[in-house]
Amino acid sequence: MTRIVLLEQIKKVLDPLQVIRSLEEGFAAYSEGRVTVPPVGHLYFDEPPGDCHIKYGYLGGSDAFVIKVATGFYRNPDIGLPSSNGLILVFNRRTGNPEAILLDQGWLTDARTAAAGAVAAKYLARSKPQGIGIIGTGTQARMQLEWLSYVTACREVKVWGRDIQKAELFRRGMAESPFSIRVAPHLDDLFADCDLIISATPSREPLIHAGQIRPGTHITAVGADGGGKQELDATVFEKADVCAVDSVAQCREYGDSSYALRRGLITEDKLIELGRIVRNPGLGRRSEEQITVADLTGVAVQDIQIAKLVLESL
Amino acid sequence: MTRIVLLEQIKKVLDPLQVIRSLEEGFAAYSEGRVTVPPVGHLYFDEPPGDCHIKYGYLGGSDAFVIKVATGFYRNPDIGLPSSNGLILVFNRRTGNPEAILLDQGWLTDARTAAAGAVAAKYLARSKPQGIGIIGTGTQARMQLEWLSYVTACREVKVWGRDIQKAELFRRGMAESPFSIRVAPHLDDLFADCDLIISATPSREPLIHAGQIRPGTHITAVGADGGGKQELDATVFEKADVCAVDSVAQCREYGDSSYALRRGLITEDKLIELGRIVRNPGLGRRSEEQITVADLTGVAVQDIQIAKLVLESL
């Protein structure tokens, strides 16, 4: 029989520290070429606009293969529904039997994206950041902040959003969190006080430029998960001392770093996969004054790892 | 909430005549360019050997999109499991919500393949066949015969398999069916008595050659659903008066007709999609003496149609 796992069960059993460890292993396996990840499947819709993507694959030697389906329908909030949804299928890799269906409503995708942000911060941010800067005010921005609590002791936060009222709502919504959150009226206020910065917006034009970035800053950008999206100006990659990505192959196609590659501001050998940094932390930040950046486009190995962890934890 | 539908429920509600009608509509929509079907996703495994494919898409104007996952692990019978498995996901096309999961264990794939054979026979076989010939002795061979009962009154059957004992088991296993079944010791015996022939084997080399085929014969081949598989020799397509396929695009890549195309024995304009014949039956058989052939490789629109029908029938 196929096990059906609901979101409440998933949230109950998942240990964030285990997720972070499991993603580290996943990124490392990916960079070592031990993960089979075929090209992502896509469906696009109009009236109303929406999309569906299918990410799937398996780790060599694993007992399971995983198929993740994620949907995004951006007008859903108009009818009182969240814009993201989805589920994850886990199959037995020796028999093809569907072992489990995780009806996570897209939450695991949000969680593994936030957990990847935590992994990037762990290896690339200063050991004692003075302030966390959150760019964006949506679900992913909130989850990125929540997951940072597992890898840094810093609790000083500034949040900025295009709509300052949404930033204020973000601040109020996290009143119960361990963080001390202030709203930054301008992006420059955020850059002045924060050295661990996460950008989690659906922006289609660069929000962050090289000139804004002080020495010692780390920036993780997670918004550019498909063509046409961009949060970091290409010059950021030229200026940065360390440019980490989750997948070089994917960042050839899209992601913030793809613009820097295409404009010739950097060459591909400047991009270091997170999995290589996990295995060899010396490839990450080497001094308090370096500028580091992580471009996370999202890879199926994250879905594979978090789904397997859910099943192991049940 | 997402509805979970089990195989027993599916078998209970599905009306074969409605399936056949629904597939006819699906094939027609496909041939009219009204179906979005991205390339099939594949995963391959070894130790033990197996594969997984993901077929997905939607009909223009439909309320649903469908993702079908099918697995094949051919050593499963050694450990008492069926070799095929799978499930179908049905999503709301306007919100991305997963509306239903059909835990059909691969049965719907078998059923829609058999139903497509019935559609081909309906439009291409003689109106009153003298005998049905079944080549192959597995699950799909049995289901092809069962589904033919909805489109022809003929009940005289000959079955042939490489292993005559399996053919005998096939005959005995269908003792309760309305068919009168005899085992053909040689393939030529089958061709001598039968004019509505279905080939449903996993053969990787041609079993059927042009010289064996008498005037008036119709042959449907369903086994060549991937590269390297072949049941009909390329000369069969050269000899046939009508060459039907489910998808010309797919038959460029694989399927029995792909060998005839590649050898230059026919050109693509000899291949007529089943959907065009459904809309214009004059493109099918035009006399009792014509030889007709149907090369069915399996297209996602069949999965889409049968999944939607299950949900409508519940």
Tell me what you see in this structure.
Two copies of one chain form a homodimer. Helices cover 34% and strands 25% of the residues of chain A. With 314 residues, the first copy, chain A, is α/β, with parallel strands linked by helices. The first copy, chain A, folds into two domains: 3-108 and 301-313, ornithine cyclodeaminase, domain 1 (2-Layer Sandwich), CATH 3.30.1780.10; 123-299, NAD(P)-binding Rossmann-like Domain (Rossmann fold, 3-Layer(aba) Sandwich). In chain A, the strands form two sheets. An eight-stranded parallel beta sheet of chain A has the order 10-9-8-11-12-15-13-14, with helices on both faces. The mean pLDDT of chain A is 96.
Radius of gyration of chain A: 19 Å
What is the string of SSEs of chain A from the N terminus onward? Answer: EHHEEEEEEHEHEHEHEEHEHHEHEH
Q: What is the highest CATH level, the class of the largest domain in chain A? A: Alpha Beta
Strand order of the largest sheet of chain A: 10-9-8-11-12-15-13-14
Taking the sheet with the most strands of chain A, its summary is: 8 strands, parallel
Q: Give the N-to-C terminal Cα separation of chain A.
A: 16 Å
What pair of chains forms the biggest interface? A-B, 39 and 38 residues
Structurally, how many domains make up the residues of chain A?
A: 2
Return residue spans of chain A where pLDDT drops below 50 for at least 5 consecutive residues.
none
What fraction, in percent, of the residue positions of chain A are helical? 25-40%
Helix count, DSSP H or I runs of 4 or more residues of chain A: 11
CATH architectural type of the largest domain in chain A: 3-Layer(aba) Sandwich
| CATH-assigned fold name of the largest domain in chain A | Rossmann fold
The CATH superfamily label of the largest domain in chain A reads NAD(P)-binding Rossmann-like Domain
